[in-house]
From TrEMBL:
Protein name: Succinylglutamate desuccinylase/Aspartoacylase catalytic domain-containing protein
Keywords: Hydrolase, Metal-binding, Zinc
GO MF term list: hydrolase activity, acting on carbon-nitrogen (but not peptide) bonds, in linear amides; hydrolase activity, acting on ester bonds; metal ion binding
Cofactor (UniProt): Zn(2+)
Pfam families in alphabetical order: AstE_AspA_cat
InterPro entries: AstE_AspA_cat, N-alpha-Ac-DABA-like, N-alpha-Ac-DABA_deacetylase
Entry-linked CDD domains: M14_ASTE_ASPA-like
Start and end residues of each Succinylglutamate desuccinylase/Aspartoacylase catalytic domain: 54-242
Entry superkingdom: Bacteria
């Protein structure tokens, strides 16, 4: 375990948690947030620590985006139902990392329009979303040996259930990250080879030398029994891989390994209503029709055919039919070997 997790403070954030001990502790991170309805208000992030015999510490996070409910549901159950006496190591569980956004069922925080998944490592003196990121970075991340960050497509995207990650430059560290992702055994294990997103919690963990990855468990603004089951069993397999629990439940095979390259993101060239020609797991050749973009205000204008900029399998699609210029309509993944990923 990476140091005792005790009550503490970082800037305006306070970790309110009982003293370190075996078993289950439930507390919260409280971040000062003065606003019209509460002069001395606070943003409250419920936190649980489940501690067993000495072993590794895994930080589990959900609700970074407020319209993604799979992670909060999976982790809410884990806190209540997991038996600490069966655990080797420690789980730090943050089911709702962005409570203001979750309460509003929005990707972004209604307090400052901040995207928590682009704010790490945060700023103790910044907007409320940046202070949430700083609190997680300062108060929880230093105690972790690994991170699993639960996401889904939220209200705007639908993913075929997968783990989604990026790989560090160090070869040995790459192998550890890939091992964890494959241990989760989601149907697809997707590696973003040139990630455009900065400021993610996973990126921050990797910069600190921690193995870390995210999930993308469906989306569309709701949850399904299938995606929740994949998340629950995948988490148990990761814990078994780390020797935190003894049994390997439903010891599944590693998922299909795919690379996601910049050309795999197929974007709308303008505003319109998108009619897809392919669904999740559909196969596309480079230049094949992805769908049509319609200008519904121009009855004399033919729909524009959108074509794939690369070949691959559709692992994510846009949910709303309305699209603006630059919106991702689908994104693909191309089959790749572990050896190829290790040499990228």
């Amino acid at each position: 375990m990476n140091g005792a997790l005790e009550p503490g403070r970082a800037g305006s954030a306070v970790l309110d948690l009982g003293p370190a001990q075996a078993g289950r502790r439930i507390g919260a991170i409280r971040i000062a947030h003065s606003h019209d309805r509460s002069a001395y208000g606070a943003v409250v992030l419920p936190v649980a620590v489940i501690e067993g015999r000495p072993g590794p510490t895994v930080l589990l996070t959900g609700g970074v985006h407020g319209d993604e409910f799979e992670g909060p549901m999976i982790l809410h159950d884990l806190v209540r139902k997991f038996d600490p006496s069966t655990l080797t190591g420690r789980l730090i569980v943050l089911p709702v990392a962005n409570p203001l956004a979750v309460a509003a069922a929005r990707r972004l925080s209604p307090a400052d329009e901040g995207n928590l998944a682009r704010c790490f490592p945060g700023d103790r003196q910044g907007t409320v979303t940046k202070r949430i990121a700083a609190a997680i970075t300062d108060l929880l991340l230093p105690h972790a040996d690994a991170l699993v960050d639960f996401h889904s497509g939220g209200g705007s995207l639908d993913y075929f259930p997968c783990t989604l990650g990026r790989l560090p430059a160090d070869q040995a560290a790459r192998a550890v990250v890939l091992d964890l992702m494959e241990a989760f055994a989601a149907p697809i294990c997707a590696i973003v080879t040139a990630p455009a997103a900065t400021g993610t919690l996973v990126a921050q963990a990797l910069e600190r030398g921690l193995p870390a990855f995210a999930t993308e468990l469906g989306g569309g603004g709701g949850v399904t029994a299938q995606t929740l089951a994949i998340g629950r069993s995948g988490l148990k397999r990761v814990m078994a891989h780390l020797k935190m629990i003894g049994e390997v439940p439903q010891a599944g095979q590693p998922g299909r390994l795919v690379a996601v390259r910049p050309e795999h993101f197929i974007r709308s060239p303008g505003r319109g209503a998108f009619e897809p020609a392919v669904g999740l797991l559909g196969e596309l050749a480079e230049g094949a029709a992805v769908g049509q973009l319609r200008d519904l205000d121009r009855l004399d204008r033919e729909p524009e055919t959108i074509r794939a900029s690369a070949s691959g399998t559709v692992i994510c699609r846009r949910v709303p039919a309305h699209a603006e210029a630059g919106d991702v309509l689908v994104h693909l993944g191309a089959d790749v070997t572990r050896q190829e990923l290790m040499t990228l």
